[in-house]
Amino acid sequence: MVSNAKDLTLTVIGDYAVPVERLWDAHVDPRQLERFWGPVEWPATFIRHEVAVGGESQYYMTGPDGTKAHGWFRFTAVEPLKRFALIDGFGDATGAPDPAMPTMEMVFTFQSTATGSRVQNVTTFPSVEAMEQLVNMGMVDGIKSAMSQTDAVLADLASFAAGRATEAQLLSDTQVRVSRVIRGSAEQVWRAHHDAGLLQQWLTGPDGWTMPVCRVANKVGDHYRYEWAQVDGTQRFGFEGELLELAAPYRAVTTERMADTEGPSTRNELTLTPVAGGTLMSLVITYPTKELRDMILGTGMTTGMETSYARLESVLKAA
């Protein structure tokens, strides 16, 4: 770690005995990044992480007494397996950017070495005063503590490998992140989520169900409607909602509720990230209440999703 007051920079270099692909994935997969971004005593939780030009990230670190410190990124450049650049800032209690705190420019570069790979992070501060302020807040010690966790994350291949079943992680009292690596490119997985003909081939859940109604929303403000029916005609249900945000091929945000009801809606944030082995699908679902979150999870939601995602991989393989 080297600081340069003249250039207003802080340079951090880490060398690891893993391929550069493994090191890159650890930074673009929020499940992995949150295990070493914050200091040991202040673990991070990422509720948004989009490593694409114009993409954003939102996270918070939780202290020993439950205090939360919020932060955000905005990506300005991304060259897969080589580098990404971002603006890094502090958030207020709602997670929104805190105008009272300085922002920093960070450039991460990745390269192969004779013994594995290296990541270099150069942070540029806006002023001497901002640099001194953040150093006095414990930034240097925090980085050292955070980096002490990186080796363990990189050694844990099994937890993040392609082929693992769909998993759900609680992010807060009302938020869940559903994750799975899908064998296929981000463009293929994106199209499979936005093409009615493809959706009807894979988004059918357990065997014995069909998807007779599939009206897709492909523009912000459009409404979608999906309906499923058992082959024997004994049951039928559906969901509907509105497309709120769209940034193809990596982000889509929708609302979702039971069709033809006035029931509460969830907010669903889909992010697709290229990783080794395919595309990481991350779906952050925000429920109106903890009780509804727990009720939905108790229905075996992830089991049904896994059946569909496994079918999606078969559809992509046959394409």
Short recap of the structure:
This protein has 319 residues and is of the alpha+beta class. It contains nine helices and 16 strands. The radius of gyration is 21 Å and the shape is globular.
Structure explained in plain terms:
The protein is built from 9 helices and 16 strands. With about 325 residues, it is of the alpha+beta class. An 8-stranded antiparallel β-sheet has the order 1-2-8-7-6-5-4-3. Strands 9-10-16-15-14-13-12-11 form an 8-stranded antiparallel β-sheet, sandwiched between helices. It folds into 2 domains: about 1-155, 2-Layer Sandwich (Alpha-D-Glucose-1,6-Bisphosphate, Chain A, domain 4), CATH 3.30.530.20; about 165-319, START domain (Alpha-D-Glucose-1,6-Bisphosphate, Chain A, domain 4, 2-Layer Sandwich).
Radius of gyration: 21 Å
Q: What is the domain tally?
A: 2
Number of helices: 9
How much beta, percentage-wise? 35-45%
At the fold tier of CATH, the topology name of the largest domain is Alpha-D-Glucose-1,6-Bisphosphate, Chain A, domain 4
- Beta strands, count: 16
> Could you say which structural class the secondary elements and strand pairing correspond to?
alpha+beta
What is the annotated CATH architecture of the largest domain? 2-Layer Sandwich
The gross shape turns out to be: globular
Mean pLDDT: 93
Helix content: 10-25%
- First and last CA, distance: 48 Å
Low-confidence stretches: none
Specify the CATH class of the largest domain: Alpha Beta
| Helix-strand topology string | EEHHEEEEEEHHHEEHHEEEEEEHH
